Amino acid sequence: MKAKRPLVEKLKSHFIDNPVSFHVPGHKGNMACMDAGTHFWDRILQYDATELPGLDNLHCPTGVIKDAQDLAARAYGVENTYFLVNGSTAGILASLLAVTHPGDTVIVDRHCHSSVFNGLMLGRLKPVYIGRPVDDITGIPLSIDMQEMDRVLEANKGAKAVIITSPSYYGVCSDVKAIADRAGNNGATLIVDEAHGAHLKFGDRLPASAVDAGAHIIIQSAHKTLPAMTQGSWLHVKGKGVDRDRLERMLGIFQTTSPSYLIMASLDAARYTMETTGAQRLKEILEQAENARQSINDIGSGLFCPGSQYFRKKGCYDFDETKLLINCIGAGISGDELDYKLRTTADIYGELYDMANWLGVITIAMKQSDLDRLVEGCRGIKPQRPAKKIPPACLDNRADCNGADPWEVLDRNCVSTALDKARGMIACSGIIPYPPGIPLVCPGERISARSIELMKEYQALGISIKGCKDGRVEVVEE
Ligand SMILES: Cc1ncc(COP(=O)(O)O)c(C=O)c1O
Q: Does some domain include residue 324?
């Protein structure tokens, strides 16, 4: 018989044996690490408040929300911080629309999150994509190539904005300072999607945060890497170039009029925790993560944990070592096979896996015993010989294959076609393998033979692809 409260019951059963979380949210269910003082989280339903007298209003804050935002701005060294209650997604949409007008050109990191492509559609913007080189061993995108950035900026002098992701989902950082200088010289606003980097400001051994590297707008999912509740994010603004009134109008469009006080309070607590004990905890857990990396590399089963040294050798600007990446190629298994084994044998849940890798997110809420359990779980992996051929997680997408701007396809007639016949046709929506969620084809791009080949390989391996169902994709009728 079907469960009467299926979601409630599933949540309860999932957490009954305290599985180890290597995934977001950053608090990992550990209340002690989210310092809101005594008994705050015990009264969670009571504090799920609305805009009562004295509790201020997110959309025109003058009281406690303003105070909490100002304290966050001070902690990050920025002029303004805005709390986001529906994730970085809302901040990305609002910032793109705040600094552009329909028809404007925007230089876009080709490996951005889907919210960026949605922002391009809503704003009727013209993207010029920057591809990234892809690592031959791990198959993941490396840093933005500065020569490529210079070439694209030179060819698009009138671009109104540049939007990049740094760190990437995998932890790869680009040279934000150099990009900020170049964008600034061209009169373009630099928006950095730092969804995965809210913790960087608090770690000595970590790459510099975009807030210190000269970016104009920086969006961070506090819920991913800090002890904040899911959806709790913030947007920071630096410098005089960004029109705050227009940005606030856009935030008003994309954010709910019923913001969760629990999420906002968790942002306040996360900022406080990071300012008081966060830096020390981050230092400790980073050392423990480094030991776990070494231990996994020493097992000898072919599992390989690359750190910042590896990525610098590959020409990357930097790497965030709170990302515990395990490359599985040498063990002859895929990332999802490792994920399955860790889940079923050690009750460990990772954040991300792709064809070749498994990724865990390390935060201050974790304990040495969590890392020990991961190392033990990895010891139980038996290498497969001969090693399986595993397709790359993504393409470097350097080729310019734009067929239409993303917004244009919204108004065009779309038809379903078999993959074999889709070569050269314009995609109606993004075609995105999950995981890792990096678009193989963006809406408006022409579908290449190589993308079709990869889609077939992914499908054969059971990887789900958003925008490709039963071997068919939606294309523009031409
Ligand atoms: C690079 C990147 N940017 C933005 C987002 C959206 O963040 P949020 O879930 O806070 O809306 C994500 C989500 O996974 C992401 O990976």
A: yes
Distance 195 CA to ligand 1 centre (A): 6
Residue at 44: amino acid letter = I
The pLDDT value given to residue 379: 97
Residue nearest to atom 1 of ligand 1 (CA): 113
Provide the mean pLDDT of the chain: 93
Please provide residue 412's backbone torsions phi and psi, each rounded to the nearest 5 degrees: -95, 155
Same domain, 65 and 130: yes
Identify whether residues 321 and 420 lie together within a single domain: no
If asked whether residues 262 and 338 sit together in one domain, one would say no
CATH number of domain containing 287: 3.90.1150.10
User: Do the domain assignments include residue 459?
Assistant: yes
Domain identity same for 181 and 265: yes
Domain extent for 339: 277-379
| 200 CB burial (10 A radius; 0-12, 13-18, 19+) | buried
Helix (H/G/I), strand (E/B), else coil: 141: strand
Tell me: the pLDDT tens digits for 216-245?
999 999 999 999 999 999 999 999 999 999
Is 401 domain-assigned? no
Residue 421 is part of a domain; what is its CATH number? 3.90.105.10
Distance, in Å, from the CA atom of 16 to the CA atom of 58, rounded to the nearest integer, reads 36
Q: Which two tokens stand for residue 97?
A: 């629309």
3-class secondary structure, 305: coil
Q: Which atom of ligand 1 is nearest to the CA of 233?
A: 10
Pocket test for ligand 1, best of 83, 85, 88 (most atoms within 8 A of CB): 88
Decide if 302 contacts 333 (C-beta within 8 A): no
Ligand 1 center to residue 384 CA distance, Å? 34
Residue 224 DSSP class: H
Using a cut of 0.85, tell me whether the model's pTM lies above it. yes
Burial level of 133, CB count in 10 A (0-12/13-18/19+)?
middle
- Contact between 65 and 56 under an 8 Å Cβ cutoff? The reply is yes
How many domains is the chain built from? 3
Residues near 309 by beta carbon (within 8 Å), at least 6 away in sequence: none
pLDDT in tens, 131-170: 899 898 898 899 999 999 999 999 999 999 999 999 999 9
By the 10 Å C-beta count (0-12 exposed, 13-18 middle, 19+ buried), 61 is classed as: middle
**Residue 221 CA, ligand 1 centroid: distance in Å:** 7
Ligand 1 atom, smallest distance to 224 CA: 10
What is the spatial distance between Cα 348 and Cα 341, in angstroms, rounded to a whole number?
Answer: 9
Structural element, H or E, at residue 107: strand 105-109
Domain boundary among 241, 270, 299: 270
Nearest ligand 1 atom to alpha carbon 221: 10
Protein residues with CB under 6 Å of any ligand 1 atom: 87-89, 113, 115, 165, 169, 193, 195-196, 221, 233
pLDDT at 31: 84
